[in-house]
């Protein structure tokens, strides 16, 4: 099994924008970035994708379900809806095999923590009593092209 790419969890976005009106607010600074190894294969088409500890990183300086993504902004620009936020870091951490991250709606009830976006870094990273810094791309954490 392997990551195989990054993407938005389609059912979460569909439920947020559709009749379900799932309470996903990308500007509340309440979503978390959880770190995962290369044993998972995210299914971006899964129905009701929920947080799982399977494949989640375990190590010094890391807490299950990850860290808050702060400074979040959602805006329309140049034909895209862009979601951006502050970089996320784990200081004084000892982590191995960190292949990617999944941002989850941690503010929903623990049983209903929906997955928002998964990011494959393409290679595994490690720290030894150091800092793991996730720096978002200049185009944001994720974006939608709204002009076909």
Set out the fold topology:
Layout: E1 7-8, H1 10-17, E2 32-36, E3 67-68, E4 73-77, E5 80-84, E6 88-104, E7 115-134, E8 142-145
Antiparallel strand pairs: 1-7, 2-3, 2-6, 4-5, 5-8, 6-7
Please characterize this protein's 3D structure.
The protein is mainly beta. The chain has one domain (7-145). It contains one helix and eight strands, in the order βαβββββββ. The strands form two sheets. It has a five-stranded antiparallel beta sheet. A three-stranded antiparallel beta sheet has the order 4-5-8, with no helix packed on it. β4 (73-77) and β5 form a beta hairpin. The chain is globular. The N and C termini lie far apart (33 Å).
Q: Stretches where pLDDT falls below 50 for ≥5 residues?
A: none
Q: Output the number of helix runs.
A: 1
Q: What is the SS-derived class? A: mainly beta
Mean pLDDT: 90
Please give the order of strands in the largest beta sheet: 1-7-6-2-3
Spell out the helices and strands N to C: EHEEEEEEE
Distance between the termini: 33 Å
Largest sheet: 5 strands, antiparallel
Helix content: under 10%
What is the general shape? globular
Radius of gyration: 15 Å
β-sheet strand percentage: 35-45%
Tell me the domain tally: 1
Number of strand segments: 8
Task: Considering the chains and any ligands shown, give keywords for the structure.
three-stranded antiparallel sheet; globular; single chain; 148 residues; mainly beta
Short description:
This protein is mostly beta strands and 148 residues long.
